[in-house]
């Protein structure tokens, strides 16, 4: 593992982070499936960030394969709880893909699942996850928290608290949090920083309400940034000005 003394290493601002990726971040332009090019680009950024000595745990969604919410409603042939279980399995698929992509470029990883699935991943145990991080392994956290009706945003907040992460890095395809959807309104305002109360009051679609409430209650900051800009993951873990900061700054 590369240390801070390496002249090519980025400066270290955070000791341990949760990197929250959507399933769509791994997908092709249509937002479906897994693109080796897209996942490879993310892996390269993670490798650069890892050089600083920052301990990185990753939570990946499953929306590029299946979302539990797709099956909600009385006309669905699949019960919603079952659909959420299917969505959890989609996150396992994405986690295994990211594991191989990271290991292909020389990083040590562990996939840890909230649902026992020993043939494919370790079962999540908090102390074991921390030990992996301390040994310089990138930990990929799959299957949410193992229960239906819980998003991977909430899983990221929960794991950030359990693993004592300094910050949640919420990777998106826009530059941060806007007053409105910038892809629909080009005049939407980009916020530099927000309080948790601002996010709730303005009904900003940053993370789901449960995730924001958890972070608010435990003063866990969130940095929302554009991972599509090369180098932004490194900037985020280095404490550079990038994206929108939610919560109090230390």
UniProtKB/TrEMBL annotation:
Compartment annotation: Cytoplasm
EC number, as in UniProt: 2.7.4.22
UniProt xrefs under InterPro entries: AceGlu_kinase-like_sf, Asp/Glu/Uridylate_kinase, Uridylate_kinase, Uridylate_kinase_bac
Superkingdom as given in the UniProt entry: Bacteria
GO molecular function, one term: ATP binding
Top EC group: transferase
Catalytically driven reaction(s): UMP + ATP = UDP + ADP
GO annotations of cellular component type: cytoplasm
Domain Aspartate/glutamate/uridylate kinase: 16-226
Residues the record lists as binding UMP: 62, 145-152
CDD domains xrefs: AAK_UMPK-PyrH-Ec
Gene Ontology terms: biological process: 'de novo' CTP biosynthetic process; UDP biosynthetic process
Known regulation of activity: Inhibited by UTP.
Alphabetic keyword roster: ATP-binding, Cytoplasm, Kinase, Nucleotide-binding, Pyrimidine biosynthesis, Transferase
Annotated metabolic or biological route of this protein: Pyrimidine metabolism; CTP biosynthesis via de novo pathway; UDP from UMP (UMPK route): step 1/1
Function: Catalyzes the reversible phosphorylation of UMP to UDP.
Subunit structure: Homohexamer.
Family: Belongs to the UMP kinase family.
Listed name of the protein: Uridylate kinase
């Amino acid at each position: 593992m590369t240390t801070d003394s390496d002249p090519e290493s980025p400066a270290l601002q955070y000791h341990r982070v949760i990197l929250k990726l959507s399933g769509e971040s791994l997908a092709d332009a249509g937002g479906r499936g897994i693109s080796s090019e897209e996942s490879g680009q993310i892996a390269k950024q993670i490798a650069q960030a890892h050089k600083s000595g920052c301990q990185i745990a990753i939570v990946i969604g499953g929306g590029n394969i299946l979302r539990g919410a797709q099956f909600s409603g009385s006309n669905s042939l699949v019960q919603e709880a079952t659909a959420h279980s299917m969505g959890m399995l989609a996150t396992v698929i994405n986690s295994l893909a990211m594991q191989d992509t990271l290991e292909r470029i020389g990083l040590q990883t562990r996939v840890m699942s909230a649902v026992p699935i020993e043939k494919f991943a370790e079962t999540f145990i908090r102390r074991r996850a921390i030990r992996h991080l301390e040994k310089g392994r990138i930990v990929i956290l799959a299957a949410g928290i193992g229960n239906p009706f819980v998003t991977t945003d909430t899983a990221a907040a929960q794991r950030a608290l359990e693993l004592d992460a300094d910050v949640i890095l919420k990777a998106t395809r826009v530059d941060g949090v806007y007053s409105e959807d910038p892809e629909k309104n080009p005049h939407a305002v980009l916020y530099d920083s927000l309080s948790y109360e601002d996010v709730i009051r303005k009904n900003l679609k940053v993370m789901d309400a449960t995730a924001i409430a958890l972070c608010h209650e435990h003063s866990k900051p969130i940095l929302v940034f554009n991972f599509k800009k090369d180098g932004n993951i490194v900037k985020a873990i280095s404490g550079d000005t990038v994206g929108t900061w939610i919560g109090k700054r230390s």
